[in-house]
């Protein structure tokens, strides 16, 4: 009896050691990934609170002895020219991203609903075209859109950005929202129809409220995409007062490439709105993103 | 082949097959009202540009986009591309960049998802921190890493010198041999969270009973992963890898801001090269021809992409 029990016991011990090995491997790996992910962000923060002089010290300090908020004060001060520019870029980004988000949602909601529920001729082809757009880089569309914008007089206006941002915002919004509508039971609408609602009423009164989480997620996705967009803004806008943040901070620091604290402070300020938005609403967001890909 | 909702399917059954396409379209006229605004926007900003790019690829246009003076040159632009040594350089860079970034991002993201699958203290916070690089702007990321790689004041160089592993800080992004791997490190930093999110969602769908059954049958952790978890995640893995590959193939911001394609084209990939040809050197025709080639490559990738995306629909469809 004892021999068998001992063998079994030893086997179990070996097995739990092996499981522990996996668990420890996982932990060490996570620590490594945490360092890889977080250190660059810590380095951005720490540089942004250094003086220009402290940033140029060798060896560099990971955290400065004398932290200073001077770079942030400069960026947020409407009295000096740096602050004026930065705040203007910030508002431009906010305006363009918000407008794009509202328009994409308005256009995408009915389209996604139709792709989810109706079977009209050409539906598959059109949905295929929508999906396919997600694959094409902005660069392919850049030259013709530049010509088009010039022809209709939108170059150097925020309108050109809003219109082009729809090229990537819309397909994505349609795809994300369709995933949500697919998961809303069609019986709910049928019940409303039996109670005398028209199809459109059923859509607006029953389906839309149920898909609110999906609409929120789609809106965040559009907003983040527009907020971070660089190449169209870089190409279509040339006047300083119109620039959005990604292009603006580049213009800003190309003249003064040694102001790393300022550059890091601006990078931080540019990241704050989208990171906060994302962290607050990440539950919806992650669900929307993965809905289509993992269901089976 | 498609998902048919109950009502729609009933409607389809009622419809005799002899009805013509036009009649069908007419019967569904109210359906189109929902998609019309989307289609209109897409036609203006997507279909027209594609058509125009194809047209421009057969012309030579003088600098400044004086389109009235363009000259028809047939396939000359395409020949010029394929015979240029830069083309092969840029193409091999693109392959290294796309395959390297995609593969490593996927493996790291998947590993993170597995390590985060079990609940432990601080898991939510850790996950949130790991996702952040994906949300912040690529422009900000490019500047942060440019500063990290800085050849005089960069932190990595300083650490290497401090440890005595280097005499002076290396020129990570100013040297032909290290620039591409250095940029790939930045790109992976931004991309692995995406793979992590997708794979975490996928892991949640792996049935617990299966894993427990495998455990009862004596499968060890690796066998359970390899024979149960991984096959179950084939679909989501395919979609994730394809999305990553397409995104990496289409990258612009990181190489453009960090190096502008330099030094001596060592970090130029297709997209940055096309941009430089068009807006830097004003060779619109050649840039358009490049775009058409790119378009063809992406269309063939797109075939697999759409198949992977709609594949799981087909399974629970009407068949």
Automatic annotation (TrEMBL), chain A:
Belongs to the binding-protein-dependent transport system permease family. MalFG subfamily. Keywords: Cell membrane, Membrane, Sugar transport, Transmembrane, Transmembrane helix, Transport. It holds the Pfam family BPD_transp_1. The keyword Glycosyltransferase does not apply. Its main location: membrane. The keyword Flavoprotein does not apply. It is found in: Cell membrane. Residues 90-281 form the ABC transmembrane type-1 domain. It comes from the Bacteria. This is Maltose/maltodextrin transport system permease protein MalG. Part of the ABC transporter complex MalEFGK involved in maltose/maltodextrin import. Probably responsible for the translocation of the substrate across the membrane. It is a multi-pass membrane protein. The chain crosses the membrane at residues 24-46, 89-113, 125-149, 161-181, 202-224, 260-281.
